[in-house]
Amino acid sequence: MSEIIYTGAAPKAEISSVFSSTLEELFHQDSSVVYIDADLMGSMKTKELWKKYPDNVINTGIQEANMIGVAAGLYLTGMKPYVHSFSPFASRRVFDQVFLSIGYAGKSIRIIGSDAGIMATYNGGTHMCFEDIAMMCTIPGVCVIDVSDAAMFRSLLIQTKDRPGVTYFRTARRGLPDVYSDDTEFRIGEGKLISDGSDVTIIASGIMVGTAIEAAGILKEKGVSAEVIDPITIKPLDRELIISSAKKTGAVVTAENHSIHGGLGAEVASLLSGEYPVPVMMVGIEDRFGQVGNEKYLREQYGLTADNIAEKALAAINKKR
Amino acid sequence: MTTKELELFALDIRTEIVKAIAKKGGGHIGGSLTIADLLAVLYGNVMRYDPKVPDWEGRDFLISSKGHAGPALYAALALKGFFPMEWLQKLNIEGTTLPGHCDRLKVPGIDATTGSLGQGASIAAGIALGLKKQHKDGQYVYCITGDGESAEGQVWEAAAFAGHFHLSNLIFFLDWNKKQIDGTNDEVMSLMDPMKKYSAFGWYTMCVNGADVSEIENAISYAKHNCGGRPIFIALDVVKGSGVPCIEEVENNHCIGVPPALAEKALSQLEEHRRKLVEE
Ligand SMILES: Cc1ncc(C[n+]2csc(CCOP(=O)(O)OP(=O)(O)O)c2C)c(N)n1
User: Fold this and answer.
1) Distance, CA A166 to ligand 1 centroid (Å)?
2) CATH, residue A304
3) Mean pLDDT of the region A101-129
4) Number of folded domains that form chain B
5) Residue A246 to residues A218, A229, B120, B171, B218, Cα–Cα distance (Å)
6) Pairwise CA distance, residues B225 & B227, whole Å
7) Residue B163: which CATH number?
8) Which structural domain, as residue segments, surrounds residue B264?
């Protein structure tokens, strides 16, 4: 039913194409679905939809804050908004509007922040958002999703159509290798056990899932058995899966394309420190700003590599009591 | 500089923009080329600056609120000696000192870090007020905004602020090329009449041919004398990709790949233009 198909090769379909085809599916399923963008349809392969579905697609031009407010209003008329911009502009730039006009006011929205973290590559530091998970997780009732591949993205886009509150997706636009087979079922709050292990647990999200699988391979060669988990949703977190894995392995490494302050690692550590304290080491952006570069260069710059995960895994194992 | 010298300077700026973006393989070429004539006027005849002391206190400030026009500013700054010309060859590549979006910490002569549209407008207003409060008369703040960018509420917050505080030392230029990413302004979000809008916010407004260096220069000095204590808004009527026909004719020329063949064509068109100018 669910198969891990990760090879690291280029995906069958880019995230941007999957976004556009899934929206189209949603328009047919439910005419109250509305997609709003702020002059970045060209970047998300959705310009065709704009012409084809004038009733379901709105372009606000470059006004992200207004876009969130408009979505809040559309919701009050019975519509189901999906909004997109680059992740810094879909989170940082509009946080107050998301928090108040949607979250606090009890409405419902799906926000897609693309080019998450280092995936902003050549747009550089001004466009590189390492803090969206941290901000969004503070909104009561939020669902935060760090997209690991196209199958997961498609499934959760469809599933959250009627979800109350704020649902936040952060994702790459291109070059995200497939991890899950097309028939995989995903549920909010339900993590995926990608591989079994006994010495250490690697919990990785988004672009780091594949990297974690590679790290487990490196560790295996060193005789270390690593369990790999994709939480699917960073909030709500799959408490049972994570606690039971920590009990089994006694050491955890988290890996994310996000700041270690307030991200996946912080959520996992905060859960385990209360429920089952074990050493938790974090791979992520360590108190730094973004910069220009290709994905490979940026991974090396910020330590988002399989080698670094493996190294931190060994360190976590060493810290076991 | 004479008019012809300004035109040649603008050509040099365009040439360096094309070369640098082509070296990287692509980038924000459309909205960089459009402001070459303005930059030639500003750095050629209007602004006070010292390339040896980029943060000289007595300088005029220039903010490109449309931060993606970094390559244009960098070309002008390099040509004026703020940093070595070789830096341009490393535009937006790994470890660069010249990231595609304007960066005040990495690039000598860049006064504001921009790239999140709308923010530069407020920064410019803040500098203008700061100078005013410290009675630094005669120092100007120039700010380049985009027409797509002008959909951002923050631009109009800055406009209201500048009008309210009578920031007559602040000059906004609108790169009015009528295009943004998803299409024309009219398709995406109409700008309506920017002159009337700024005028309603208490600004002195003008509109000139943004591809004509003398019109731009005259407008700046005319506005400074006639603004009546108001901030100044000058719309630059231009074509996106301005000055390079083979880029102008690309419909969606916001951020594009610039393969060697296109770069060669662009450079030969610029060379042709230069030949004609020199012969005139
Ligand atoms: C706040 C924000 N939203 C979106 C973007 C992405 N973006 C970069 S340039 C651009 C279009 C800009 O259009 P315009 O201001 O007309 O610039 P020009 O055509 O002169 O290059 C967009 C949407 C951004 N940089 N900042």
Assistant:
1) 26
2) 3.40.50.920
3) 98
4) 1
5) 20, 11, 48, 60, 72
6) 6
7) 3.40.50.970
8) 3-279
User: Model ipTM?
Assistant: 0.96
Distance CA B234, CA B220 (A): 8
Domain that residue A303 falls in:
192-320
Give A171→chain B minimum CA distance, Å. Answer: 19
Q: Is residue A69 one of the residues assigned to a domain? A: yes
Residue A163 sits in the same domain as residue A200: no
Spacing of C-alpha A67 from chain mean position: 21
Round to whole Å and give the CA distance between B66 and B101: 9
Tell me, yes or no, whether A37 and A143 share the same domain.
yes
Number of domains in chain A: 2
Q: Hey, which residues 39-98 in chain B have their CB within 8 Å of chain A?
A: 67, 92-96
Quote the tokens at residue A311: 């190294």
* Euclidean distance between CA atoms A207 and A144, whole angstroms: 15
Residues in B closer than 8 angstroms to A121, CB to CB, are none
Does any domain span residue A181?
A: no
Q: Which residues of chain B lie closer than 8 angstroms to A93, CB-CB?
A: 116
Same domain, A79 and A163: yes
Ligand 1 neighbour B31 (Cβ under 6 A):
yes
- Tell which B residues from 170 to 199 touch A, by Cβ distance under 8 Å: 180-182, 185, 188-189
Residues A145 and A207 grouped into a single domain: no
* Same-domain check for residues A155 and A232: no
Alpha-carbon distance of B35 to B62, in angstroms, equals 13
In chain B, residues 146-165 whose CB comes closer than 8 Å to chain A: 148-149, 151-153
Interface test with A, best of B97, B179, B181 (most A CBs within 10 A): B181
List B173's β-bridge partners, or say none. B144, B234
With a pLDDT cut of 90, the percent of chain B lying above it is 100
Residues β-bridged to residue B174? B145, B235
Q: What distance in Å separates the CA atoms of residue A103 and residue A86, rounded to the nearest whole number?
A: 20
Q: Is B64 helix (H, G, I), strand (E, B) or coil?
A: strand
Alpha-carbon span B42 to A63, nearest angstrom: 29
CATH number for the domain spanning A38: value is: 3.40.50.970
CB-CB under 8 Å, A63 with B153: yes
Structure letter (DSSP) for residue B166: T
Task: Give contacts of B100 with chain A, Cβ < 8 Å.
Answer: 122-124, 292
Answer whether residue B208 shows pLDDT above 80: yes
**Region A223-248 average pLDDT:** 98
pTM above 0.95, yes or no: yes
Q: Is residue A7 part of a domain?
A: no
The reply to whether residue B151 touches residue A60, judged by beta carbons under 8 angstroms, is yes
User: Which residue among B181, B185, B252 has the greatest number of ligand 1 atoms within 8 angstroms of its CB, and so is best to mutate?
Assistant: B181
Residue A1: is its pLDDT beyond 70?
no
What residue has token string 């330590």?
Answer: A303
CA B219 to CA B208: how far, in whole Å?
A: 7
- Rg for chain A (alpha carbons), in Å? 19
Per-residue pLDDT tens over the stretch B156-176: 999 999 999 999 999 999 999
Extract the tokens encoding B266.
Answer: 């662009």
Whether residues A220 and A311 share a domain: the answer is yes
Amino acid at A112: I
Same domain, A204 and A147: no
